[in-house]
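Re: the request from the purification team.
They wanted to know what the chain is likely to look like in 3D before they choose a buffer screen. I agreed to run a prediction and write the result into the notebook, where they can find it.
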Amino acid sequence: ILNEYERGVIFRLGRVIKAKGPGLIILIPIIDKMKKVDLRTVTLDVPPQDIITKDNVSVKVSAVVYFRVLDPVKAVVEVENFFFATSQLAQTTLRSVCGQAELDELLSEREKINARIQEILDLDTEPWGVKVSKVEVKEIDLPDEMKRAMAKQAEAERERRSKIINAEGEFQAARKLQEAAKIIEETPAALQLRFLQTLREVAAENNSTTLFPIPIDLFKPFLKLAEKGEEKQGGEA
Protein backbone atom coordinates (compact mmCIF):
# COMPACT_ATOMS: atom_id res chain seq x y z
CA ILE A 1 0.00 0.00 0.00
CA LEU A 2 1.42 3.36 -1.07
CA ASN A 3 0.67 6.74 0.53
CA GLU A 4 -0.56 9.76 -1.39
CA TYR A 5 2.98 11.15 -1.67
CA GLU A 6 4.52 7.85 -2.84
CA ARG A 7 4.75 6.09 -6.18
CA GLY A 8 5.92 2.58 -6.96
CA VAL A 9 7.99 1.82 -10.06
CA ILE A 10 7.06 -1.71 -11.14
CA PHE A 11 9.67 -4.04 -12.69
CA ARG A 12 8.50 -7.27 -14.31
CA LEU A 13 11.30 -9.71 -15.02
CA GLY A 14 13.72 -6.78 -14.91
CA ARG A 15 11.76 -4.62 -17.35
CA VAL A 16 10.07 -1.39 -16.27
CA ILE A 17 6.32 -1.56 -16.59
CA LYS A 18 5.18 1.78 -15.14
CA ALA A 19 4.83 3.80 -11.96
CA LYS A 20 1.76 3.03 -9.84
CA GLY A 21 0.10 4.52 -6.79
CA PRO A 22 -1.14 5.66 -4.46
CA GLY A 23 -3.21 2.92 -2.88
CA LEU A 24 -3.10 -0.87 -3.04
CA ILE A 25 -0.56 -2.31 -5.48
CA ILE A 26 -0.82 -5.99 -6.42
CA LEU A 27 2.42 -7.68 -7.45
CA ILE A 28 2.99 -11.12 -8.94
CA PRO A 29 5.38 -12.96 -6.60
CA ILE A 30 8.89 -13.61 -7.94
CA ILE A 31 8.01 -11.99 -11.28
CA ASP A 32 7.27 -8.42 -10.13
CA LYS A 33 9.39 -6.09 -8.01
CA MET A 34 8.61 -2.55 -6.88
CA LYS A 35 10.84 0.43 -6.08
CA LYS A 36 9.16 3.12 -3.95
CA VAL A 37 9.82 6.81 -4.68
CA ASP A 38 8.87 9.73 -2.42
CA LEU A 39 7.40 12.71 -4.32
CA ARG A 40 7.62 15.23 -1.49
CA THR A 41 10.03 18.18 -1.60
CA VAL A 42 13.42 17.26 -0.17
CA THR A 43 15.70 19.68 1.69
CA LEU A 44 19.35 19.14 0.83
CA ASP A 45 22.06 20.89 2.87
CA VAL A 46 25.18 21.63 0.85
CA PRO A 47 28.18 21.61 3.25
CA PRO A 48 30.63 24.56 3.23
CA GLN A 49 32.71 24.57 0.06
CA ASP A 50 36.20 26.09 -0.22
CA ILE A 51 35.97 28.58 -3.07
CA ILE A 52 38.35 31.12 -4.60
CA THR A 53 36.38 34.03 -6.02
CA LYS A 54 37.11 35.81 -9.27
CA ASP A 55 39.12 38.46 -7.41
CA ASN A 56 41.23 35.75 -5.66
CA VAL A 57 39.59 35.80 -2.23
CA SER A 58 39.33 32.47 -0.40
CA VAL A 59 35.88 31.92 1.15
CA LYS A 60 33.69 29.10 2.41
CA VAL A 61 30.14 29.00 1.09
CA SER A 62 27.27 26.76 2.17
CA ALA A 63 23.79 26.46 0.68
CA VAL A 64 20.48 24.64 0.85
CA VAL A 65 18.67 23.08 -2.12
CA TYR A 66 14.97 22.24 -2.38
CA PHE A 67 13.97 19.63 -4.95
CA ARG A 68 11.44 16.88 -5.62
CA VAL A 69 10.87 13.99 -8.01
CA LEU A 70 8.54 14.68 -10.93
CA ASP A 71 9.09 11.47 -12.90
CA PRO A 72 9.52 8.39 -10.65
CA VAL A 73 10.53 6.14 -13.54
CA LYS A 74 13.42 8.40 -14.61
CA ALA A 75 14.49 8.88 -10.98
CA VAL A 76 14.90 5.10 -10.65
CA VAL A 77 16.12 4.13 -14.11
CA GLU A 78 18.28 7.05 -15.28
CA VAL A 79 20.44 7.43 -12.14
CA GLU A 80 21.55 5.00 -9.45
CA ASN A 81 20.81 7.30 -6.50
CA PHE A 82 19.11 10.56 -7.45
CA PHE A 83 19.53 12.08 -3.97
CA PHE A 84 23.30 11.48 -3.86
CA ALA A 85 23.71 12.59 -7.47
CA THR A 86 21.79 15.81 -6.85
CA SER A 87 23.89 16.45 -3.74
CA GLN A 88 27.18 16.08 -5.61
CA LEU A 89 25.95 18.18 -8.51
CA ALA A 90 24.86 20.92 -6.10
CA GLN A 91 28.34 21.07 -4.55
CA THR A 92 30.16 21.35 -7.87
CA THR A 93 27.67 23.90 -9.21
CA LEU A 94 28.00 26.02 -6.07
CA ARG A 95 31.79 26.09 -6.43
CA SER A 96 31.58 26.87 -10.13
CA VAL A 97 29.07 29.74 -9.92
CA CYS A 98 30.63 31.37 -6.85
CA GLY A 99 34.11 31.02 -8.35
CA GLN A 100 33.00 33.11 -11.34
CA ALA A 101 31.81 35.98 -9.13
CA GLU A 102 33.75 38.62 -7.20
CA LEU A 103 33.46 38.91 -3.42
CA ASP A 104 31.32 42.06 -3.54
CA GLU A 105 28.91 40.30 -5.89
CA LEU A 106 28.66 37.30 -3.55
CA LEU A 107 27.84 39.57 -0.62
CA SER A 108 25.47 42.00 -2.32
CA GLU A 109 23.80 39.96 -5.08
CA ARG A 110 22.81 36.70 -3.41
CA GLU A 111 19.49 36.55 -5.23
CA LYS A 112 21.31 36.59 -8.55
CA ILE A 113 23.70 33.84 -7.39
CA ASN A 114 20.80 31.75 -6.06
CA ALA A 115 18.89 32.04 -9.33
CA ARG A 116 21.95 31.08 -11.39
CA ILE A 117 22.65 27.95 -9.30
CA GLN A 118 18.98 26.94 -9.38
CA GLU A 119 18.84 27.35 -13.15
CA ILE A 120 21.89 25.13 -13.73
CA LEU A 121 20.79 22.44 -11.27
CA ASP A 122 17.27 22.31 -12.66
CA LEU A 123 18.58 21.88 -16.18
CA ASP A 124 21.12 19.18 -15.27
CA THR A 125 18.73 17.13 -13.10
CA GLU A 126 15.86 17.16 -15.60
CA PRO A 127 17.01 13.87 -17.25
CA TRP A 128 16.75 12.24 -13.79
CA GLY A 129 13.12 13.28 -13.38
CA VAL A 130 14.08 15.75 -10.64
CA LYS A 131 12.83 19.33 -10.31
CA VAL A 132 15.01 21.82 -8.37
CA SER A 133 12.57 24.46 -7.13
CA LYS A 134 14.82 26.70 -5.03
CA VAL A 135 18.43 27.31 -3.97
CA GLU A 136 19.56 29.55 -1.11
CA VAL A 137 23.14 30.47 -0.21
CA LYS A 138 23.21 30.18 3.59
CA GLU A 139 26.58 31.43 4.77
CA ILE A 140 29.65 33.07 3.30
CA ASP A 141 32.57 32.65 5.70
CA LEU A 142 35.45 35.06 5.14
CA PRO A 143 39.05 34.76 6.40
CA ASP A 144 39.81 36.68 9.61
CA GLU A 145 42.14 39.12 7.87
CA MET A 146 39.43 39.88 5.31
CA LYS A 147 36.89 40.50 8.08
CA ARG A 148 39.30 42.95 9.74
CA ALA A 149 39.94 44.72 6.44
CA MET A 150 36.21 45.04 5.76
CA ALA A 151 35.63 46.36 9.29
CA LYS A 152 38.31 49.04 8.73
CA GLN A 153 36.74 49.91 5.39
CA ALA A 154 33.31 50.25 6.99
CA GLU A 155 34.75 52.46 9.75
CA ALA A 156 36.47 54.65 7.17
CA GLU A 157 33.21 54.95 5.24
CA ARG A 158 31.31 55.97 8.40
CA GLU A 159 34.00 58.57 9.19
CA ARG A 160 33.81 59.93 5.66
CA ARG A 161 30.04 60.30 5.88
CA SER A 162 30.36 61.98 9.28
CA LYS A 163 32.80 64.52 7.85
CA ILE A 164 30.46 65.20 4.94
CA ILE A 165 27.53 65.78 7.32
CA ASN A 166 29.62 68.12 9.50
CA ALA A 167 30.83 70.02 6.45
CA GLU A 168 27.25 70.41 5.22
CA GLY A 169 26.23 71.70 8.66
CA GLU A 170 29.05 74.26 8.67
CA PHE A 171 28.11 75.31 5.15
CA GLN A 172 24.48 75.86 6.17
CA ALA A 173 25.57 77.81 9.26
CA ALA A 174 27.85 80.00 7.13
CA ARG A 175 24.98 80.70 4.74
CA LYS A 176 22.74 81.72 7.64
CA LEU A 177 25.44 84.06 8.96
CA GLN A 178 25.88 85.54 5.52
CA GLU A 179 22.14 86.13 5.22
CA ALA A 180 22.06 87.72 8.69
CA ALA A 181 24.98 90.00 7.81
CA LYS A 182 23.19 91.08 4.65
CA ILE A 183 20.01 91.90 6.58
CA ILE A 184 21.95 93.91 9.17
CA GLU A 185 23.77 95.78 6.42
CA GLU A 186 20.47 96.73 4.79
CA THR A 187 18.75 97.62 8.11
CA PRO A 188 21.25 99.02 10.70
CA ALA A 189 18.42 99.38 13.21
CA ALA A 190 18.30 95.59 13.48
CA LEU A 191 21.87 95.56 14.83
CA GLN A 192 21.01 98.22 17.39
CA LEU A 193 17.94 96.27 18.51
CA ARG A 194 19.98 93.12 18.90
CA PHE A 195 22.57 94.99 20.94
CA LEU A 196 19.92 96.33 23.30
CA GLN A 197 18.45 92.84 23.70
CA THR A 198 21.88 91.53 24.66
CA LEU A 199 22.27 94.27 27.26
CA ARG A 200 18.93 93.37 28.82
CA GLU A 201 19.78 89.64 28.94
CA VAL A 202 23.13 90.29 30.63
CA ALA A 203 21.60 92.69 33.14
CA ALA A 204 18.98 90.08 34.08
CA GLU A 205 21.71 87.62 35.14
CA ASN A 206 22.68 89.75 38.22
CA ASN A 207 26.35 89.59 37.38
CA SER A 208 29.02 91.98 38.60
CA THR A 209 29.67 95.20 36.78
CA THR A 210 30.29 94.63 33.08
CA LEU A 211 31.69 97.08 30.57
CA PHE A 212 30.29 97.10 27.04
CA PRO A 213 31.59 98.94 24.01
CA ILE A 214 28.60 100.94 22.76
CA PRO A 215 28.51 101.84 19.06
CA ILE A 216 28.43 105.59 18.44
CA ASP A 217 25.58 104.98 16.02
CA LEU A 218 23.28 104.44 19.00
CA PHE A 219 23.84 108.05 20.09
CA LYS A 220 23.50 109.73 16.68
CA PRO A 221 19.73 110.28 17.01
CA PHE A 222 20.22 111.91 20.43
CA LEU A 223 23.10 114.06 19.18
CA LYS A 224 20.97 115.31 16.30
CA LEU A 225 18.19 116.24 18.72
CA ALA A 226 20.68 118.13 20.92
CA GLU A 227 22.07 120.03 17.93
CA LYS A 228 18.58 121.03 16.82
CA GLY A 229 17.80 122.26 20.37
CA GLU A 230 20.91 124.41 20.48
CA GLU A 231 20.15 125.91 17.07
CA LYS A 232 16.64 126.73 18.20
CA GLN A 233 17.85 128.44 21.38
CA GLY A 234 20.43 130.45 19.41
CA GLY A 235 17.76 131.64 17.00
CA GLU A 236 15.50 132.83 19.79
CA ALA A 237 18.37 134.78 21.38
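For the purification team: The chain is about 50% helix and 25% strand.
Please add any questions underneath this entry.
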